[in-house]
Amino acid sequence: xxxxxxxxxxxxxxxxxxxxxxxxxxxxxxxxxxxxxxxxxxxxxxxxxxxxxxxxxxxxxxxxxxxxxxxxxxxxxxxxxxxxxxxxxxxxxxxxxxxxxxxxxxxxxxxxxxxxxxxxxxxxxxxxxxxxxxxxxxxxxxxxxxxxxxxxxxxxxxxxxxxxxxxxxxxxxxxxxxxxxxxxxxxxxxxxxxxxxxxxxxxxxxxxxxxxxxxxxxxxxxxxxxxxxxxxxxxxxxxxxxxxxxxxxxxxxxxxxxxxxxxxxxxxxxxxxxxxxxxxxxxxxxxxxxxxxxxxxxxxxxxxxxxxxxxxxxxxxxxxxxxxxxxxxxxxxxxxxxxxxxxxxxxxxxxxxxxxxxxxxxxxxxxxxxxxxxxxxxxxxxxxxxxxxxxxxxxxxxxxxxxxxxxxxxxxxxxxxxxxxxxxxxxxxxxxxxxxxxxxxxxxxxxxxxxxxxxxxxxxxxxxxxxxxxxxxxxxxxxxxxxxxxxxxxxxxxxxxxxxxxxxxxxxxxxxxxxxxxxxxxxxxxxxxxxxxxxxxxxxxxxxxxxxxxxxxxxxxxxxxxxxxxxxxxxxxxxxxxxxxxxxxxxxxxxxxxxxxxxxxxxxxxxxxxxxxxxxxxxxxxxxxxxxxxxxxxxxxxxxxxxxxxxxxxxxxxxxxxxxxxxxxxxxxxxxxxxxxxxxxxxxxxxxxxxxxxxxxxxxxxxxxxxxxxxxxxxxxxxxxxxxxxxxxxxxxxxxxxxxxxxxxxxxxxxxxxxxxxxxxxxxxxxxxxx
Length: 771
Fold this sequence. Notes:
The chain is mainly β. It has a domain at 6-102: Sandwich (Immunoglobulin-like). 8% of the residues lie in helices and 54% in strands. It has nine helices and 45 strands. It has a 22-stranded antiparallel β-barrel. A five-stranded mixed β-sheet has the order 10-15-16-13-14. A four-stranded antiparallel β-sheet has the order 3-2-5-6. A hairpin with a 2-residue loop joins strand 33 and strand 34 (564-587). The two termini are 37 Å apart.
C-alpha cells in the first residue's frame, strides 16, 4: 500500500525493527501467549498501545505485560495475515492467551510479483492469489504441481512434463519466478513443475493477466512467483520427510541463523519415485522412475541502515531411467532410455537506500540448464539416439524506486540479458541479446482510488522492438466492497526451437526446421532428391513476429464480515500472431517437412469465482469455480466459409457448424473445487478435505479435420477427493497423513493421474524441540 495512516504505520514499522532487538519488559508474573486458531504461536505478532509505542512477541509468541499499564489499558494485537484484536489488560490478567483468527482469503499477505514492490493483496488493483505455507502443507504436496492443481482457474496438464494452464493459456505463456527471478529450461515451451520441491516455500503468488509491462516475454497469461523461506530464528534446524504410494519418498532438511545483521538458510531436498504404469500392455512405465536432488542457500547481510546485500544460489539434479518399445524392421525391440537434467541458479542483489524516499536495487541473475538423453537397444547395446541440450541465461538489472509523497511511488528499471543455446538438434552455438526499460507509477489520486500504470520497451536481437503497456485501477466503495480492473498488453518472443531447430526423426522420416533455417533445409532436401512437392513457398518463412495479446481482467472483492469473502474475476485474452507449425514440403517417403509461422488468432475468456465462509473458529468452507470459453478465430472463419467438413453418425459428409466447434484442445469449460477445513479443539488435529473437479476436455483429433468438433474427441470429467490430517504439537513437531484421489477416479487421457495414493509425513524442528 502506498499511502497509509502515518501514526499507525510508524508504530508497525517501529515494532518490526524492535522485533529482533528489543528487550521485552514488564511484570515477569504476567506473560501473554499469542496463538492462532490451531494453537500455534504467532511469532511475528506486534503489541501496540498509546500513540507511538509497540513491542514484538518473542520467538515463541510470548510478551510481558508492562508495569506501566493499568487494568483498563487497551492494547491491539497485530499480525500479518490475521485479524487484529483489541484487548483490555484486566482480561489478559485473567486469561493470558490471545487467539487471532487468520484473515480469510489471505488478504493480509504482502505480494511482490505484481509490482516488484511490497503491496498487500487487498490494495492491489489486479487479480492476485497468495497460497500460504499452511495451505501448501494442506495439499500434502511434494512438488509444485501437487499444490497448483488444487487452485481455482489453474490446470496442471501433461505436456512434456507437468505443465500449467492459466485462463486457458498454456505453459508457454506463464512466467515462473523463484524469489522474483525467472526460471529457465523448457521442453517444447513447457516448464516442468515437478522440478520444484515445496517444503522450503514460504508462499506462492499467482498473478493473473499479462505482466509483460514489467517482466517482458513469457508473461502473457500471468506469473507464478515462488517465495522461499528466510531465516527468522537466531538458530534453526529442521528435518522433514514424507512417504507416498509408488515408493515415492521426499526428504528435506534446512539449517539457518539470524544474528548480528547476518542471516542464512541452507536447504537440501531429495526426492525419488518408482513411477507408475497406466498401460501394462505397453513396454515402459507411464511415469519414468527418477531421483532428484535440490540444494539451496540464501544469505543476507545488513551492512548499515543504507546498504543491504543478498545472494541466492540453487542447484538441481535429476536422473531417470526407463524402458520403451521400439519398432525396428517390423519387430518391437526393447530400448533403455537414460536421462538427466541439471539446473543451476546464482542471483546476487545489492540494495542502497540513501534516504526514506529512494531505494536503488542492482540485481544479477545467471542460470544454466542442461539435459542429456541416451537411448540404446537392450538386445545388443547399440545406440539408437543421443540428445544433448545446454541453455545459458544471464541478466543484469537496475531498479530505482522513488516515493515522491505518500500517494505516489515511481519505479524505473533497465536491464540487459544474454541467452545462448547449444544442442544436438541446433546448428552451432546460438545467442540472443536483449535490452529493456520499464517505468511504473503507483498512486492514489483520491482516498478511494488506487492505480498502477506502466510500460516496458524491449529491444531483441531476433524480433526487434516491442512496447508493452498496462494500467490497473481499484475503487473502494466501502470497507467491505471494492472493484478492480486492469488492461494490458503481453508478448512472447519466438524461442530457439521455433527459430533454429534442425531436426530429423530418422525412424518416422519427417523433418522439422526452424523458421530461420527452412529455406536452406528445403533446398538441401531438393538437392538430395527427397522432395516430392513443395506445399508452401519457403521464401515466405524466416521472420517470426513475437506473439502478442491484449487482455482485460475485472472483478470485485466483497468482504461483508471478517468471516465471509467473495472474490470474482472476469477475463478476456485476445492473442495474435500465435506461432503454429505447418508442412512446407511433402517428401518422397510420404512424410512431411515442417516449419513454424505466425498465423493463429485465439481468444480465451471466462470467469473465476472464489467464496470463503468461516463458521466459528474451527470450521471453514471454500468454493471455487471457473468457466472458460476458448476459440481459434481462424477456425471460426473457415467454418463460416464452409470449408471444414466432418462425417456424421450415418457416415455422411457435412459441413461443420459453429455449434459443433469445441474450442482449443485440452481445455475444460468447467472446473472448480470445494475445500473444507476443520480444527478439532480437544485433540488439536486439523482436517483438510478437498474436492477437485476438472470438466470434460478435448484430448485429440479423432475424425481427422484438425479441430475439436466431435463427441468422441472429449475425455470425461473427473472429481477427485483429497484428504489431509495433521497435528502440530507444542514443541513444533508436526505429524500428517492423508490420501489423494481417494475414490480412484481415472482418465486414460491424463497420464499425470496415477489413481488413489496415500501419504504420511512428519516435521521435526529441533530448535523448538530443544530450545
